[in-house]
Amino acid sequence: MALSGFQQKLQSVAGKISSNRYLKAISDGLMSALPALIIGAFSTLLSGMQFEAYQNFITSTGIKEILELPAQYTTNMIAVYAVFFIAYRFAGSFDKDGAPAGLIALMSFFVLTPTGLLGENDAIALPFQFLGAQGLFVAIIVGLISSRLYVFIVDKGFTIKMPDGVPPTVAKTFTGLVPGILIVVLFTIVSFLFRMTEFVSMHQFVYSFIQTPMQNLGGGFWSLIAMTLVIHTLWLLGIHGMLVILPIYLSIWMPLGVENLDAIAAGQELPNIVNTAFAQVFMLLGGSGATLGLAIIMAFMAKSKRYKTLGRISLPGTIFGINEPLIFGLPIVLNPYLAIPFVVAPLVAVIIPYFLMASGIIGKLAGAHLPLGTPAFFNAILQGGVVILIVQVLMIIVTGLIYYPFFRVIDKQALKEEEAA
Amino acid sequence: MKNILLVCAAGMSTSMLVNKMEKAAGAKEEEIKIAATSGGDIKKYIKDADVLLLGPQVSYLKDDYAKQYGGSDGIPVEVINSIDYGTMNGEKVLDWALDLIK
Where does the record place the PTS EIIC type-3 domain (chain A) (predicted)? Predict the structure, then answer.
Protein backbone atom coordinates (compact mmCIF):
# COMPACT_ATOMS: atom_id res chain seq x y z
CA MET A 1 0.00 0.00 0.00
CA ALA A 2 2.84 2.32 0.87
CA LEU A 3 4.32 1.71 -2.55
CA SER A 4 1.13 2.39 -4.41
CA GLY A 5 0.72 5.70 -2.56
CA PHE A 6 4.28 6.66 -3.45
CA GLN A 7 3.76 5.47 -6.99
CA GLN A 8 0.66 7.59 -7.39
CA LYS A 9 2.46 10.65 -6.11
CA LEU A 10 5.33 10.03 -8.50
CA GLN A 11 2.87 9.45 -11.34
CA SER A 12 1.30 12.82 -10.75
CA VAL A 13 4.71 14.54 -10.55
CA ALA A 14 5.78 12.81 -13.77
CA GLY A 15 2.51 13.84 -15.35
CA LYS A 16 3.05 17.44 -14.33
CA ILE A 17 6.59 17.49 -15.65
CA SER A 18 5.74 15.99 -18.98
CA SER A 19 2.69 18.16 -19.49
CA ASN A 20 4.55 21.32 -18.49
CA ARG A 21 4.22 23.55 -21.54
CA TYR A 22 7.73 24.99 -21.38
CA LEU A 23 9.50 21.64 -21.00
CA LYS A 24 7.23 20.05 -23.57
CA ALA A 25 7.94 22.82 -26.06
CA ILE A 26 11.69 22.29 -25.60
CA SER A 27 11.54 18.56 -26.26
CA ASP A 28 8.91 18.78 -29.02
CA GLY A 29 10.80 21.64 -30.67
CA LEU A 30 14.14 19.84 -30.54
CA MET A 31 12.47 16.67 -31.81
CA SER A 32 11.05 18.62 -34.76
CA ALA A 33 14.55 19.87 -35.56
CA LEU A 34 16.03 16.37 -35.37
CA PRO A 35 15.71 15.49 -39.06
CA ALA A 36 18.13 18.32 -39.84
CA LEU A 37 20.54 17.00 -37.22
CA ILE A 38 20.34 13.46 -38.56
CA ILE A 39 21.00 14.55 -42.14
CA GLY A 40 23.95 16.57 -40.91
CA ALA A 41 25.30 13.67 -38.90
CA PHE A 42 25.34 11.39 -41.92
CA SER A 43 27.07 14.10 -43.92
CA THR A 44 29.81 14.40 -41.29
CA LEU A 45 30.14 10.64 -40.85
CA LEU A 46 30.47 10.10 -44.60
CA SER A 47 33.04 12.83 -45.05
CA GLY A 48 34.95 11.91 -41.88
CA MET A 49 35.33 8.13 -42.28
CA GLN A 50 38.95 7.39 -41.47
CA PHE A 51 40.16 5.12 -44.24
CA GLU A 52 43.21 6.58 -45.87
CA ALA A 53 42.42 5.43 -49.39
CA TYR A 54 38.87 6.71 -49.07
CA GLN A 55 39.99 10.06 -47.64
CA ASN A 56 42.59 10.48 -50.39
CA PHE A 57 39.98 9.72 -53.00
CA ILE A 58 37.28 12.09 -51.73
CA THR A 59 39.80 14.87 -51.06
CA SER A 60 41.50 14.70 -54.44
CA THR A 61 38.25 14.50 -56.37
CA GLY A 62 36.64 17.30 -54.38
CA ILE A 63 33.80 15.05 -53.26
CA LYS A 64 34.69 15.79 -49.62
CA GLU A 65 33.57 19.40 -49.95
CA ILE A 66 30.23 18.28 -51.31
CA LEU A 67 29.81 15.69 -48.58
CA GLU A 68 30.48 18.35 -45.95
CA LEU A 69 27.95 20.78 -47.37
CA PRO A 70 24.76 19.37 -45.76
CA ALA A 71 26.42 19.38 -42.31
CA GLN A 72 27.25 23.06 -42.69
CA TYR A 73 23.60 23.97 -43.15
CA THR A 74 22.10 21.46 -40.71
CA THR A 75 24.26 20.51 -37.69
CA ASN A 76 26.13 23.81 -37.78
CA MET A 77 22.86 25.76 -37.85
CA ILE A 78 20.84 23.63 -35.48
CA ALA A 79 20.03 26.54 -33.15
CA VAL A 80 18.27 28.34 -36.02
CA TYR A 81 15.95 25.39 -36.62
CA ALA A 82 15.50 24.83 -32.91
CA VAL A 83 14.43 28.38 -32.08
CA PHE A 84 11.76 28.31 -34.77
CA PHE A 85 10.30 24.97 -33.75
CA ILE A 86 10.42 25.57 -29.99
CA ALA A 87 8.41 28.77 -30.46
CA TYR A 88 6.15 27.04 -32.99
CA ARG A 89 5.37 24.15 -30.63
CA PHE A 90 4.95 26.42 -27.62
CA ALA A 91 2.39 28.63 -29.37
CA GLY A 92 0.70 25.48 -30.64
CA SER A 93 0.19 24.26 -27.07
CA PHE A 94 -1.93 27.39 -26.52
CA ASP A 95 -3.88 26.65 -29.72
CA LYS A 96 -2.26 29.63 -31.39
CA ASP A 97 -0.94 29.69 -34.92
CA GLY A 98 2.65 28.47 -34.58
CA ALA A 99 4.07 29.96 -37.77
CA PRO A 100 4.09 33.66 -36.74
CA ALA A 101 5.44 32.70 -33.31
CA GLY A 102 8.27 30.75 -34.95
CA LEU A 103 9.01 33.58 -37.36
CA ILE A 104 9.16 36.17 -34.56
CA ALA A 105 11.44 33.92 -32.49
CA LEU A 106 13.74 33.44 -35.46
CA MET A 107 13.96 37.20 -36.05
CA SER A 108 14.62 37.79 -32.36
CA PHE A 109 17.34 35.14 -32.38
CA PHE A 110 19.11 36.78 -35.31
CA VAL A 111 18.82 40.22 -33.72
CA LEU A 112 20.79 38.84 -30.77
CA THR A 113 23.45 37.19 -32.94
CA PRO A 114 26.64 39.22 -33.52
CA THR A 115 27.66 39.81 -37.12
CA GLY A 116 31.14 40.05 -38.56
CA LEU A 117 32.85 41.38 -41.66
CA LEU A 118 34.08 39.17 -44.43
CA GLY A 119 36.65 39.51 -47.19
CA GLU A 120 38.25 42.52 -48.82
CA ASN A 121 34.97 44.30 -49.39
CA ASP A 122 33.99 44.06 -45.75
CA ALA A 123 30.77 42.26 -46.63
CA ILE A 124 28.55 41.88 -43.58
CA ALA A 125 28.57 38.23 -42.54
CA LEU A 126 26.74 36.11 -40.03
CA PRO A 127 29.31 33.80 -38.40
CA PHE A 128 28.26 30.21 -37.82
CA GLN A 129 29.75 30.32 -34.31
CA PHE A 130 26.46 30.80 -32.47
CA LEU A 131 24.12 29.23 -35.02
CA GLY A 132 25.10 25.66 -34.11
CA ALA A 133 25.51 23.84 -30.81
CA GLN A 134 26.92 26.93 -29.10
CA GLY A 135 23.73 28.87 -29.73
CA LEU A 136 21.33 26.17 -28.64
CA PHE A 137 20.65 27.51 -25.15
CA VAL A 138 19.91 30.99 -26.48
CA ALA A 139 17.62 29.29 -29.00
CA ILE A 140 15.74 27.61 -26.16
CA ILE A 141 15.54 30.79 -24.07
CA VAL A 142 14.51 33.06 -26.95
CA GLY A 143 12.15 30.48 -28.39
CA LEU A 144 10.26 30.18 -25.11
CA ILE A 145 10.26 33.86 -24.10
CA SER A 146 9.30 35.27 -27.48
CA SER A 147 6.59 32.67 -27.97
CA ARG A 148 5.21 33.28 -24.46
CA LEU A 149 5.07 37.00 -25.21
CA TYR A 150 3.41 36.29 -28.55
CA VAL A 151 0.71 34.22 -26.86
CA PHE A 152 0.26 36.90 -24.19
CA ILE A 153 -0.07 39.75 -26.69
CA VAL A 154 -2.49 37.83 -28.91
CA ASP A 155 -4.57 36.87 -25.86
CA LYS A 156 -4.70 40.52 -24.80
CA GLY A 157 -6.05 41.32 -28.24
CA PHE A 158 -3.27 43.68 -29.30
CA THR A 159 -3.51 42.69 -32.91
CA ILE A 160 -4.61 44.43 -36.06
CA LYS A 161 -8.11 43.24 -36.83
CA MET A 162 -9.13 43.21 -40.43
CA PRO A 163 -12.67 44.18 -41.38
CA ASP A 164 -15.02 41.42 -42.48
CA GLY A 165 -14.57 40.38 -46.06
CA VAL A 166 -10.79 40.33 -45.88
CA PRO A 167 -9.69 36.80 -46.72
CA PRO A 168 -8.65 34.87 -43.60
CA THR A 169 -5.15 34.15 -44.92
CA VAL A 170 -4.55 37.87 -45.34
CA ALA A 171 -5.98 38.59 -41.89
CA LYS A 172 -3.68 35.92 -40.47
CA THR A 173 -0.60 37.70 -41.77
CA PHE A 174 -1.54 40.77 -39.79
CA THR A 175 -2.16 38.86 -36.54
CA GLY A 176 1.56 38.43 -36.11
CA LEU A 177 2.44 42.00 -36.97
CA VAL A 178 1.87 43.86 -33.69
CA PRO A 179 3.31 41.11 -31.48
CA GLY A 180 6.19 40.79 -33.94
CA ILE A 181 7.08 44.46 -33.78
CA LEU A 182 6.85 44.58 -29.98
CA ILE A 183 8.90 41.42 -29.42
CA VAL A 184 11.59 42.18 -31.98
CA VAL A 185 11.96 45.71 -30.56
CA LEU A 186 12.34 44.21 -27.09
CA PHE A 187 15.08 41.81 -28.21
CA THR A 188 16.78 44.61 -30.14
CA ILE A 189 17.03 46.53 -26.87
CA VAL A 190 18.36 43.41 -25.14
CA SER A 191 20.89 42.95 -27.91
CA PHE A 192 21.94 46.62 -27.56
CA LEU A 193 22.33 46.29 -23.79
CA PHE A 194 24.57 43.23 -24.15
CA ARG A 195 26.69 45.13 -26.65
CA MET A 196 27.59 47.61 -23.93
CA THR A 197 28.88 44.85 -21.67
CA GLU A 198 32.17 42.98 -21.99
CA PHE A 199 30.29 40.00 -23.44
CA VAL A 200 29.29 41.94 -26.57
CA SER A 201 26.39 39.57 -27.20
CA MET A 202 23.77 37.61 -25.29
CA HIS A 203 25.14 34.51 -27.01
CA GLN A 204 28.58 34.92 -25.44
CA PHE A 205 27.02 35.56 -22.04
CA VAL A 206 24.69 32.56 -22.10
CA TYR A 207 27.35 30.32 -23.56
CA SER A 208 29.93 31.23 -20.88
CA PHE A 209 27.68 31.44 -17.85
CA ILE A 210 24.85 28.99 -18.47
CA GLN A 211 25.52 26.57 -21.29
CA THR A 212 29.17 25.68 -20.58
CA PRO A 213 28.72 25.10 -16.83
CA MET A 214 25.56 23.08 -17.42
CA GLN A 215 27.20 20.97 -20.11
CA ASN A 216 30.27 20.37 -17.95
CA LEU A 217 27.99 19.29 -15.16
CA GLY A 218 25.66 17.32 -17.42
CA GLY A 219 28.39 15.68 -19.47
CA GLY A 220 30.28 14.26 -16.52
CA PHE A 221 30.39 10.79 -15.03
CA TRP A 222 28.04 11.46 -12.14
CA SER A 223 25.39 12.99 -14.36
CA LEU A 224 25.55 9.90 -16.52
CA ILE A 225 24.96 7.77 -13.42
CA ALA A 226 22.19 10.06 -12.15
CA MET A 227 20.43 10.15 -15.53
CA THR A 228 20.59 6.33 -15.79
CA LEU A 229 19.24 5.89 -12.26
CA VAL A 230 16.37 8.34 -12.71
CA ILE A 231 15.23 6.88 -16.04
CA HIS A 232 15.20 3.32 -14.75
CA THR A 233 13.75 3.94 -11.33
CA LEU A 234 10.83 5.71 -12.98
CA TRP A 235 10.38 2.81 -15.40
CA LEU A 236 10.27 0.34 -12.50
CA LEU A 237 7.25 2.25 -11.26
CA GLY A 238 5.63 2.03 -14.67
CA ILE A 239 6.49 5.55 -15.78
CA HIS A 240 8.19 6.20 -19.11
CA GLY A 241 11.38 7.56 -17.54
CA MET A 242 12.95 8.68 -20.78
CA LEU A 243 9.92 10.72 -21.76
CA VAL A 244 9.88 12.53 -18.43
CA ILE A 245 13.50 13.67 -18.57
CA LEU A 246 13.57 14.17 -22.35
CA PRO A 247 13.85 17.99 -22.17
CA ILE A 248 17.00 17.74 -20.03
CA TYR A 249 18.37 14.79 -21.96
CA LEU A 250 17.99 16.52 -25.32
CA SER A 251 19.03 20.04 -24.35
CA ILE A 252 22.21 18.98 -22.52
CA TRP A 253 23.38 15.78 -24.22
CA MET A 254 22.43 16.59 -27.81
CA PRO A 255 24.77 19.62 -28.15
CA LEU A 256 27.56 17.52 -26.61
CA GLY A 257 27.13 15.09 -29.50
CA VAL A 258 27.08 17.95 -32.00
CA GLU A 259 30.40 19.17 -30.57
CA ASN A 260 31.89 15.76 -31.35
CA LEU A 261 30.59 15.89 -34.92
CA ASP A 262 32.05 19.39 -35.30
CA ALA A 263 35.39 18.06 -34.06
CA ILE A 264 35.29 15.28 -36.67
CA ALA A 265 34.58 17.80 -39.40
CA ALA A 266 37.46 19.98 -38.19
CA GLY A 267 39.80 16.99 -37.83
CA GLN A 268 40.19 17.56 -34.07
CA GLU A 269 40.10 15.18 -31.12
CA LEU A 270 36.59 14.30 -29.92
CA PRO A 271 35.74 16.24 -26.75
CA ASN A 272 32.81 14.43 -25.13
CA ILE A 273 32.29 10.88 -23.89
CA VAL A 274 28.72 11.42 -22.77
CA ASN A 275 26.09 12.47 -25.31
CA THR A 276 22.83 11.15 -26.74
CA ALA A 277 24.76 8.76 -29.00
CA PHE A 278 26.41 7.21 -25.94
CA ALA A 279 23.00 6.68 -24.36
CA GLN A 280 21.64 5.13 -27.56
CA VAL A 281 24.56 2.74 -28.05
CA PHE A 282 25.04 1.61 -24.44
CA MET A 283 22.42 2.71 -21.90
CA LEU A 284 19.46 1.93 -24.15
CA LEU A 285 20.98 -1.23 -25.66
CA GLY A 286 17.70 -3.00 -26.40
CA GLY A 287 15.58 -0.22 -24.92
CA SER A 288 15.51 1.09 -21.36
CA GLY A 289 17.15 -1.38 -18.99
CA ALA A 290 19.62 -2.53 -21.66
CA THR A 291 17.38 -5.56 -22.17
CA LEU A 292 18.78 -6.95 -25.42
CA GLY A 293 20.82 -9.55 -23.50
CA LEU A 294 17.74 -10.50 -21.51
CA ALA A 295 15.63 -10.87 -24.65
CA ILE A 296 18.23 -13.19 -26.20
CA ILE A 297 18.35 -15.32 -23.04
CA MET A 298 14.56 -15.52 -22.98
CA ALA A 299 14.20 -16.42 -26.63
CA PHE A 300 16.84 -19.15 -26.66
CA MET A 301 17.37 -20.35 -23.09
CA ALA A 302 14.03 -20.01 -21.28
CA LYS A 303 12.63 -23.30 -20.00
CA SER A 304 9.08 -22.11 -19.50
CA LYS A 305 6.81 -21.77 -22.50
CA ARG A 306 5.47 -18.47 -21.28
CA TYR A 307 8.82 -16.66 -21.20
CA LYS A 308 10.19 -18.36 -24.29
CA THR A 309 7.19 -17.12 -26.30
CA LEU A 310 7.48 -13.63 -24.85
CA GLY A 311 11.20 -13.61 -25.62
CA ARG A 312 10.55 -14.53 -29.24
CA ILE A 313 7.82 -11.87 -29.57
CA SER A 314 9.99 -9.15 -28.13
CA LEU A 315 13.46 -9.93 -29.50
CA PRO A 316 13.02 -8.25 -32.92
CA GLY A 317 11.64 -5.04 -31.38
CA THR A 318 14.36 -5.07 -28.75
CA ILE A 319 17.08 -4.99 -31.42
CA PHE A 320 15.45 -1.75 -32.58
CA GLY A 321 15.37 -0.42 -29.02
CA ILE A 322 11.66 -0.96 -28.45
CA ASN A 323 11.08 -3.16 -25.43
CA GLU A 324 7.67 -2.32 -23.99
CA PRO A 325 6.59 -5.96 -24.48
CA LEU A 326 9.30 -6.99 -22.02
CA ILE A 327 8.69 -4.15 -19.61
CA PHE A 328 4.98 -4.84 -19.36
CA GLY A 329 4.77 -8.45 -20.48
CA LEU A 330 7.29 -10.01 -18.11
CA PRO A 331 6.54 -7.67 -16.39
CA ILE A 332 9.54 -5.67 -15.22
CA VAL A 333 7.34 -2.93 -13.80
CA LEU A 334 6.84 -3.44 -10.06
CA ASN A 335 8.54 -6.84 -10.25
CA PRO A 336 10.88 -7.30 -7.27
CA TYR A 337 12.78 -10.10 -9.02
CA LEU A 338 13.83 -7.99 -11.98
CA ALA A 339 14.14 -4.56 -10.34
CA ILE A 340 17.81 -5.03 -9.44
CA PRO A 341 19.13 -6.15 -12.85
CA PHE A 342 16.91 -3.60 -14.62
CA VAL A 343 18.83 -0.80 -12.87
CA VAL A 344 22.23 -2.48 -12.56
CA ALA A 345 22.50 -3.71 -16.17
CA PRO A 346 22.27 -0.27 -17.81
CA LEU A 347 24.55 1.19 -15.13
CA VAL A 348 27.24 -1.37 -15.92
CA ALA A 349 26.59 -0.92 -19.65
CA VAL A 350 27.48 2.78 -19.35
CA ILE A 351 30.22 2.57 -16.71
CA ILE A 352 32.48 0.11 -18.55
CA PRO A 353 32.53 1.99 -21.89
CA TYR A 354 32.87 5.29 -20.01
CA PHE A 355 36.11 4.19 -18.39
CA LEU A 356 37.39 2.52 -21.55
CA MET A 357 36.94 5.88 -23.28
CA ALA A 358 38.19 8.02 -20.39
CA SER A 359 41.40 5.99 -20.21
CA GLY A 360 41.85 6.21 -23.98
CA ILE A 361 41.65 2.46 -24.59
CA ILE A 362 38.81 2.96 -27.07
CA GLY A 363 37.82 6.08 -29.00
CA LYS A 364 34.81 8.26 -28.17
CA LEU A 365 31.60 8.05 -30.18
CA ALA A 366 31.06 10.27 -33.21
CA GLY A 367 28.05 11.76 -31.43
CA ALA A 368 25.43 11.49 -34.19
CA HIS A 369 21.91 11.59 -32.76
CA LEU A 370 20.33 8.72 -34.66
CA PRO A 371 16.58 8.36 -35.20
CA LEU A 372 14.60 6.38 -32.65
CA GLY A 373 14.53 2.75 -33.78
CA THR A 374 18.03 2.65 -35.26
CA PRO A 375 19.01 -0.97 -34.60
CA ALA A 376 21.75 -2.11 -32.25
CA PHE A 377 24.99 -3.20 -33.95
CA PHE A 378 24.29 -0.78 -36.82
CA ASN A 379 24.31 2.21 -34.45
CA ALA A 380 27.59 1.02 -32.89
CA ILE A 381 29.28 0.71 -36.28
CA LEU A 382 28.08 4.17 -37.34
CA GLN A 383 29.30 5.82 -34.14
CA GLY A 384 32.69 4.21 -33.83
CA GLY A 385 33.32 1.33 -36.21
CA VAL A 386 34.23 -2.23 -35.37
CA VAL A 387 35.81 -1.41 -32.00
CA ILE A 388 32.57 0.04 -30.65
CA LEU A 389 30.64 -2.86 -32.15
CA ILE A 390 32.84 -5.28 -30.20
CA VAL A 391 32.32 -3.29 -26.99
CA GLN A 392 28.58 -3.25 -27.61
CA VAL A 393 28.45 -7.02 -28.12
CA LEU A 394 30.49 -7.39 -24.95
CA MET A 395 27.93 -5.26 -23.12
CA ILE A 396 25.12 -7.48 -24.41
CA ILE A 397 26.91 -10.45 -22.88
CA VAL A 398 27.65 -8.65 -19.62
CA THR A 399 24.09 -7.36 -19.19
CA GLY A 400 22.78 -10.80 -20.14
CA LEU A 401 24.87 -12.31 -17.34
CA ILE A 402 23.51 -9.73 -14.91
CA TYR A 403 19.91 -10.60 -15.84
CA TYR A 404 20.47 -14.35 -16.00
CA PRO A 405 20.37 -15.41 -12.31
CA PHE A 406 17.32 -13.24 -11.64
CA PHE A 407 15.54 -14.43 -14.75
CA ARG A 408 16.24 -18.08 -13.85
CA VAL A 409 14.28 -17.68 -10.61
CA ILE A 410 11.10 -16.49 -12.34
CA ASP A 411 11.63 -18.93 -15.20
CA LYS A 412 11.72 -21.87 -12.77
CA GLN A 413 8.57 -20.62 -11.06
CA ALA A 414 6.78 -20.33 -14.38
CA LEU A 415 7.92 -23.80 -15.42
CA LYS A 416 6.61 -25.27 -12.17
CA GLU A 417 3.24 -23.60 -12.72
CA GLU A 418 3.11 -24.88 -16.29
CA GLU A 419 3.93 -28.43 -15.23
CA ALA A 420 1.34 -28.31 -12.46
CA ALA A 421 -1.34 -27.10 -14.83
CA MET B 1 -17.30 3.04 -38.63
CA LYS B 2 -15.41 3.08 -35.36
CA ASN B 3 -12.15 4.89 -34.69
CA ILE B 4 -9.74 3.77 -32.01
CA LEU B 5 -6.75 5.94 -31.13
CA LEU B 6 -3.74 4.66 -29.19
CA VAL B 7 -1.12 6.89 -27.59
CA CYS B 8 2.33 6.12 -26.26
CA ALA B 9 5.63 7.97 -26.00
CA ALA B 10 6.73 7.88 -29.61
CA GLY B 11 3.90 5.88 -31.13
CA MET B 12 6.29 3.01 -31.79
CA SER B 13 5.41 0.20 -29.44
CA THR B 14 1.71 1.02 -29.74
CA SER B 15 1.98 0.71 -33.49
CA MET B 16 3.08 -2.89 -32.92
CA LEU B 17 -0.10 -3.45 -30.94
CA VAL B 18 -2.12 -1.69 -33.64
CA ASN B 19 -0.91 -4.24 -36.19
CA LYS B 20 -2.17 -7.05 -33.98
CA MET B 21 -5.46 -5.24 -33.36
CA GLU B 22 -5.99 -4.63 -37.07
CA LYS B 23 -5.58 -8.32 -37.73
CA ALA B 24 -8.23 -9.05 -35.12
CA ALA B 25 -10.44 -6.29 -36.55
CA GLY B 26 -10.28 -7.86 -40.01
CA ALA B 27 -12.34 -10.78 -38.70
CA LYS B 28 -15.14 -8.48 -37.50
CA GLU B 29 -18.06 -7.38 -39.62
CA GLU B 30 -18.04 -3.66 -38.88
CA GLU B 31 -15.39 -1.32 -40.19
CA ILE B 32 -12.84 -0.39 -37.55
CA LYS B 33 -10.01 2.09 -37.93
CA ILE B 34 -7.11 1.97 -35.49
CA ALA B 35 -4.30 4.52 -35.26
CA ALA B 36 -1.25 5.04 -33.06
CA THR B 37 0.33 8.38 -32.33
CA SER B 38 2.77 10.07 -29.99
CA GLY B 39 1.49 12.45 -27.32
CA GLY B 40 2.70 15.47 -29.30
CA ASP B 41 0.57 14.72 -32.36
CA ILE B 42 -2.60 13.71 -30.59
CA LYS B 43 -4.49 16.82 -31.71
CA LYS B 44 -4.27 15.73 -35.33
CA TYR B 45 -6.12 12.48 -34.69
CA ILE B 46 -8.38 13.14 -31.75
CA LYS B 47 -11.22 14.69 -33.76
CA ASP B 48 -12.21 11.42 -35.40
CA ALA B 49 -11.49 9.16 -32.43
CA ASP B 50 -14.30 7.31 -30.63
CA VAL B 51 -12.06 6.08 -27.84
CA LEU B 52 -8.60 7.08 -26.63
CA LEU B 53 -6.34 4.34 -25.23
CA LEU B 54 -3.05 5.04 -23.45
CA GLY B 55 -0.06 2.73 -23.32
CA PRO B 56 0.68 1.82 -19.70
CA GLN B 57 4.02 3.66 -19.83
CA VAL B 58 2.18 6.96 -20.19
CA SER B 59 -0.62 6.13 -17.75
CA TYR B 60 0.34 9.28 -15.83
CA LEU B 61 -1.07 11.36 -18.69
CA LYS B 62 -4.54 9.91 -18.21
CA ASP B 63 -5.89 12.66 -15.94
CA ASP B 64 -4.63 15.30 -18.30
CA TYR B 65 -6.19 13.68 -21.37
CA ALA B 66 -9.40 12.80 -19.54
CA LYS B 67 -9.80 16.48 -18.67
CA GLN B 68 -9.20 17.57 -22.25
CA TYR B 69 -10.96 14.90 -24.26
CA GLY B 70 -13.08 12.91 -21.80
CA GLY B 71 -15.96 14.10 -19.68
CA SER B 72 -19.67 13.86 -20.34
CA ASP B 73 -19.55 15.08 -23.95
CA GLY B 74 -16.13 13.60 -24.65
CA ILE B 75 -14.88 10.11 -25.46
CA PRO B 76 -13.73 7.32 -23.12
CA VAL B 77 -10.08 7.71 -22.06
CA GLU B 78 -8.50 4.56 -20.61
CA VAL B 79 -5.12 2.93 -19.94
CA ILE B 80 -4.46 -0.41 -21.62
CA ASN B 81 -3.94 -3.34 -19.24
CA SER B 82 -0.18 -3.71 -18.98
CA ILE B 83 -0.05 -7.49 -19.38
CA ASP B 84 -2.23 -7.36 -22.50
CA TYR B 85 0.01 -4.59 -23.74
CA GLY B 86 3.22 -6.47 -23.03
CA THR B 87 2.05 -9.67 -24.63
CA MET B 88 0.60 -7.67 -27.53
CA ASN B 89 -2.80 -9.30 -27.16
CA GLY B 90 -4.50 -7.40 -29.99
CA GLU B 91 -7.74 -9.34 -29.89
CA LYS B 92 -8.38 -8.73 -26.22
CA VAL B 93 -7.53 -5.04 -26.39
CA LEU B 94 -9.75 -4.63 -29.45
CA ASP B 95 -12.77 -6.27 -27.80
CA TRP B 96 -12.24 -4.17 -24.71
CA ALA B 97 -11.97 -0.99 -26.79
CA LEU B 98 -15.21 -1.82 -28.66
CA ASP B 99 -16.92 -2.37 -25.31
CA LEU B 100 -15.77 1.06 -24.18
CA ILE B 101 -17.30 2.75 -27.21
CA LYS B 102 -20.74 1.29 -26.54
Answer: 6-406
Q: Is the ipTM of this complex over 0.85?
A: no
Whether residue A269 sits in one domain with residue A188: no
Range 48-87 of B in CB contact (< 8 A) with A: 55-61, 63-64, 82-83, 85-87
Q: In terms of domains, do A177 and A83 share one?
A: yes
Query: What is the residue range of A150's domain?
Result: 74-217
Query: Torsion angle of alpha carbons A366, A368, A369, A374, nearest 10°?
Result: -90
In a domain, A44, yes or no: no
Judge residue A305's burial from the number of C-beta atoms within 10 Å of its C-beta, 0-12 exposed, 13-18 middle, 19 or more buried. exposed
Active site residue B8: yes
What would the pLDDT profile of A81-125 be if each residue is shown by its tens digit? 999 999 999 999 998 999 999 999 999 999 999 988 888 888 899
Span of A176-190, A240-254, A389-403 with lowest mean pLDDT: A240-254
Question: pLDDT tens, B24-72?
Answer: 998 888 889 998 888 767 888 888 899 999 988 888 888 888 888 887 7
* Selected catalytic residue, list B4, B5, B8, B61: B8
Shared domain check, A174 and A250: no
Instruction: Specify the number of domains making up chain A.
Output: 2
Number of structural domains, chain B?
Answer: 1
With CB atoms and an 8 Å threshold, state whether B87 touches A11: no
Q: Which of A217, A249, A273 is the last residue of a domain?
A: A217
| Residue A207 within a domain | yes
Q: Is residue A58 one of the residues assigned to a domain? A: no
Residues A385 and A258 in one domain: yes
- Look up the pTM and report it: 0.85
Task: Output the DSSP codes for A212-275.
Answer: HHHHHHHTSHHHHHHHHHHHHHHHHTT--HHHHHHHHIIIIIHHHHHHHHHHHHHTPPP--S-S
Nearest Cα of chain A lies from the Cα of B10 at a distance, in angstroms, of 9
